[in-house]
What we know:
This protein folds into two domains: 44-113, CATH 3.30.1330.30; 121-286, SPOUT methyltransferase, trefoil knot domain (Alpha/beta knot, 3-Layer(aba) Sandwich). The protein is 40% helix and 18% strand. It has helices at residues 3-26, 48-55, 74-84, 94-100, 121-130, 146-158, 176-181, 197-206, 244-249, 267-286; strands at residues 44-46, 61-67, 89-92, 109-113, 136-140, 163-167, 190-194, 209-214, 220-221, 230-235, 252-255. Helix 6 runs parallel beside helix 10. It is flat and about 95 Å long.
Amino acid sequence: MTKKDNKRRIEYEFNKEEEKRKRRDRAPRAPREAVVEQEINENVIEGRNPVLEAFDSKITVEKILVSKGDSTGSVIKIISIAKEKGIPVIEVDRRKLDAIANSPHHQGVVAYITPYRYVELADILKIASDRNEKPFIMILDEIEDPHNLGSIIRTAELSGVHGVIIPKRRSVGVNSTVFKTSAGAVNHMAIAKVTNIPRIIDEMKEEGVFVYGADMKGDSYSYNTNFDGGVALVIGNEGKGLSRLVREKCDGIVSIPMVGKVNSLNASVAAGILMYEVMKSRISKVK
């Protein structure tokens, strides 16, 4: 083969591959499958410890599903307590539990419960009055992560909060993940689910509650803010922070001092720091 023939062959192979590439580019691409988000079922609790904690709470357990053939450890205890309380226990294939549970971490146990009983603002204020304490309330402005909600409820219960308020829309509700993350604190915390957060803030102000929003650009730092009297703390959405209307309704905006390179805190961590600032001021008054 001459050099001239070899050159023509190389050009031919190149053009052939180039034509193939163009045909591939012109071919219609298969549409991507739509990502379907699993709807959270608030009427189930999953996991061994959350189900055991539900027995000692005000929650009504309607029935329990356990993985077929799993009768070890705490599952035996769950079955025994359920029988004592007259709660039906049904053995099912593990694949059915996978389909019912909100996560794959159900540990072979799922309990159906009556829907969580949310309260009203008046109920939260009455709890404070019955304890002879000034109201201490958490307002969560569109918190979407159930782990954040569960963690906030857990800290709220430990720091003396009388109730937590969440919106009905664009917010996670009390579901199995919240139960598990709160380590049972949901059973001891009054939670209100309301239509309009700004309107609820107005109602609180009428009851003498001072409302503080949390934001990086606050009017003052949390450690030198006066948290005397009735207090409500507002924590904003994980990504967007406080919504405009809610921010405008707040009596004051407080920030948490930070000296690192990361310029924000996780919502549940920020909530915890602020709750303990309020609790600290109340404990110091008692002592």
